[in-house]
Every structure is written in structure tokens, then in C-alpha cells.
Design a protein that fits this description.
Strand order of the largest sheet: 1-2-9-4-7
Distance between the termini: 54 Å
Length: 137
């Protein structure tokens, strides 16, 4: 009986870990882009959480128009990015630069350099919603 209970607890822990990793992994499955989840926490605002991730782009790779159910704060760690926020002029950012993207605002990111580019993305988003929603064409 004890072994069965341990097996159930292990399965539940694995399911929880999979639920934590799957949305971020699935959203970053574009060629040349990888995502590393760093932390995730509930915050003092009811119904919201913060998620922080490192996103690495190989040379000339891009992530198309999408939005989030909350704000995104970007800090460029290395390389050169072109960010396009819908309805605004493209913005070029280099290592050390920052960008704020409002809730629900469609945007894209592209590594415009010849080497790797990386960003630290911090999201303040509604809980229990997909972290990323691709824009319909």
C-alpha cells in the first residue's frame, strides 16, 4: 500500500512539473529559439503571477506576432534585437537595453545580428491563461 501511495505522489509531482514546463516549451518551439524558465511565483495581486525566462535566439531567428495576458518587461542580455510592437515603429535594442510591452499588445522579436541574442523576459500575467497567444493572420 505504501509503494502504491508513493507511486501516486510521484505521478502527481511529475504531472505538476510537466504542466509548469509545457506551455513555455510549446510556445518557444520555433526554429533557432530556446527558452529557459527561471522562476514562477504568485504575487500580491489576486489572480496574477510573475514568470521569468531567458530566451535565446540564434542568428537571424525571429518569433512572430503574439501577445500575453499581462505585461512583459524585457532586458536584453546580449546581441541585437528588432522588436515590433503592433501600430508602432520597429525598435532596435542591444545588450543592456530594456523594453516594456503592455498587456495584450501584439509584438514580435527578431535577432538582427550575426551571433546569438538573448533576453530576460519577465511577465506579470493572469494566472490560468496561456502565457502566449499567437496572432491570427
Amino acid at each position: 500500500m505504501r509503494t502504491y501511495k508513493n507511486l501516486l505522489l510521484s505521478a502527481a509531482a511529475l504531472a505538476g512539473l510537466t504542466a509548469f514546463l509545457t506551455p513555455a516549451t510549446a510556445s518557444a518551439q520555433q526554429s533557432g529559439i530556446s527558452r529557459t524558465n527561471l522562476q514562477r511565483h504568485d504575487i500580491s495581486v489576486s489572480g496574477y503571477e510573475t514568470i521569468q525566462a531567458r530566451i535565446d535566439f540564434q542568428a537571424h531567428s525571429a518569433f512572430g506576432m503574439h501577445n500575453h495576458p499581462g505585461e512583459e518587461l524585457i532586458y536584453v542580455l546580449e546581441g541585437t534585437f528588432e522588436y515590433q510592437i503592433e501600430g508602432e515603429k520597429p525598435i532596435i535594442l542591444k545588450a543592456g537595453d530594456v523594453l516594456f510591452i503592455p498587456k495584450g499588445k501584439n509584438h514580435s522579436a527578431k535577432n538582427v545580428g550575426n551571433g546569438k541574442a538573448s533576453e530576460l523576459a519577465t511577465y506579470i500575467v493572469e494566472k490560468n491563461k496561456p502565457l502566449l497567444v499567437l496572432k491570427n493572420k
